[in-house]
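Minimal example, chain plus S-adenosylmethionine.
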Amino acid sequence: MKESFLFLYNFIRYPFATGAVLPSSRRLAARMVDDSGIDAAKTVVELGPGTGVFTRAISERIGSETVYLGIELREKFAALVSEKFPGLCIVNDSAENIVENLAKLDRTEADTIISGLPWAAFDTDLQKRIMTSVTEALPPGGKFATFTYLHAVRLPAARRFRALLDENFSEVRESKTVWRNMPPAFVYHCTK
Ligand SMILES: C[S@@+](CC[C@H](N)C(=O)[O-])C[C@H]1O[C@@H](n2cnc3c(N)ncnc32)[C@H](O)[C@@H]1O
């Protein structure tokens, strides 16, 4: 409950960066990590962990040798997730800086990137800067998973984001809708 209040507070204070009133559901988290190549990944990056719903699903699936890097813009969320998952590396930075943060962990690329970012709330320039950061960090064949809310899919920013996915990935697949999420959402599973 405390985490839901923190999330709501952040939505009121930073509506565009937070992009949602409530954290995602465990069902959506499970759908995000399915088919993301996470079981075999040596390096996994999570963008915008928030209160850590996807982080938990990721931590339950990765191997003990896998390097995890979480990048969260809001200091309070980054501190909360670091406290909840002391074995994982979470930095308080922007998703625009994936490669720079991987270098600090002696990695040049990530096999899988899981994004909790509210892409449809970003302007064109920020969408492009973060997408460049994602594609620079992924090798050919690397996996990228991100979600979108069903009700928002026809909004111009969401359509622009979908076009950006098609431009940057050789395969983009849509999951079934996860109805047990507030609001209902689906996942884009992408391969570079
Ligand atoms: C819709 S919330 C999702 C949080 C969590 N993954 C979930 O699904 O419940 C978006 C998250 O992305 C973070 N965020 C927004 N812009 C960001 C950026 N440029 N870099 C890193 N994190 C960002 C927000 O602070 C927030 O935690």
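The pocket of S-adenosylmethionine is lined by residues 17-20, 23-24, 47-50, 53-54, 71-74, 77, 94-95, 116-118 (CB under 6 Å). The mean pLDDT is 94.
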